[in-house]
Every structure is written in structure tokens, then in C-alpha cells.
Amino acid sequence: MPGAEPRVPPRKRFLSVQQVEKIVDEVEPRNKAFLWTLALGGLRPAEACALRMRNLNGTIYIEEGKTEGSTRDVPVHERLRPILSEHLNLHADRFHPDSLVFTTALGYPISQNNFLRRAFKPAAERARGPQRGGGHSGGL
User: Fold this and answer.
1) Ordered domains of the chain (ranges, CATH)
2) Which among 24, 127, 124, 119 is positioned nearest to 80, based on CA atoms?
3) Mean pLDDT score of the chain, rounded to an integer?
4) Which one is predicted more confidently, 130 or 26?
5) Helix 80-91 with 29-41: angle, nearest 10 deg
6) Angstrom distance (rounded) from CA 57 to CA 110
7) In b/e form, how buried is each residue of 56-77, taking b as 16+ CB within 10 angstroms?
8) CA 17 to CA 3: how far, in whole Å?
9) Neighbour-count burial of 114, counting CB atoms closer than 10 A to its CB (0-12 exposed, 13-18 middle, 19+ buried)
10) For residue 112, pLDDT beyond 60
11) How many Å apart are CA 128 and CA 135, to the nearest integer?
12) Do 50 and 41 form a contact (C-beta atoms < 8 A)?
């Protein structure tokens, strides 16, 4: 349209490590590694939900990415390595390559929409704490 302002894409926002720590402190123990994998691995929620044991071999191999070109190897951050190892020992079937890395407490695949609605958003709200003034968090 003549004279129309060009559309400016929304600015991407990222959480600081301190903000992630606050949120992780508010989720159930079995979800902590999932959040750290998103934060330290840079995975999309759907990629983390689809991770299987065969995808972990010194790196995190993303084979079911958003696009064909998003198949990649992600290095495991040194801080993530012990978190992920503990999670696997407690909550995953390490001996079957096709078993999911992250599941619900009942062993079902994690639904990213349910996780966002039931776990992440409430944890972020609790981590934010009571708001003062106009209600803008400025952070989480």
C-alpha cells in the first residue's frame, strides 16, 4: 500500500540465565531438565518433545526439526550434561533407543501446548512474584 509503514517484525526476547533459574525452581523436578535443554541447547519445544534416546550421543541430534534444513547436531552445554544425565537416570528408559527422553509422569509424550499452559506459564508467573505498579514485568 502506498504510504504505509513497512511491517517491523517483533523483537525476539530471550531469558537470562537468572530468569531461567527462577522458572526452573518453580517447576516439578521431572520438568527441570526439559527447560534446561530448551534454554541451554536452544531447542524448540517441539524438538525437545520429540527427542529419543538415539538422539543423545555426546551431542543432541535434532532429526525432527521445524524444517528439513533444521536437522542438526547441538553440542551439550557443560552445565546441561549433569542435569540431563540425572534426568535420564530417574525418568527415561536409557536402554531402548526409541524411547522418549522427556515424558509426562505417566510416561506419555509431552504436549508442548499442555506444557506451556500447565507448567511453564504458571512457573514463570510464580517466578515473577508479585508485581508492583502498572503490571509490566519487565523481565520474565
Assistant:
1) 17-125 (1.10.443.10)
2) 24
3) 88
4) 26
5) 140
6) 22
7) beeebebeeeeeeeeeeebebb
8) 42
9) exposed
10) yes
11) 11
12) no
Amino acid at position 107, single letter = G
The 10s digit of each residue's pLDDT in 61-75 is 998 666 777 789 999
Q: Which of 113, 98, 115, 126 is nearest to 30 (CA)?
A: 115
| Single-letter residue type at 112 | Q
Round to whole Å and give the CA distance between 50 and 112: 10
With helix as H, strand as E and coil as C, how does 17-82 read? HHHHHHHHHHCCHHHHHHHHHHHHHCCCHHHHHCCEHHHECCEEEECCCCCHHHCEEEECCCCHHH
Helix axes 17-26, 121-128, angle to 10 degrees: 110
Integer distance in angstroms from the first to the last C-alpha of the chain? 37
**Owner of C-alpha cell 552445565:** 79
Spatial neighbors of 124 by CB under 8 A, at least 6 apart, are 23, 26, 140
* Residue matched to cell numbers 527462577: 22
Cell of 78: 557443560
Report yes or no: 33 and 83 within 8 Å, Cβ to Cβ.
yes
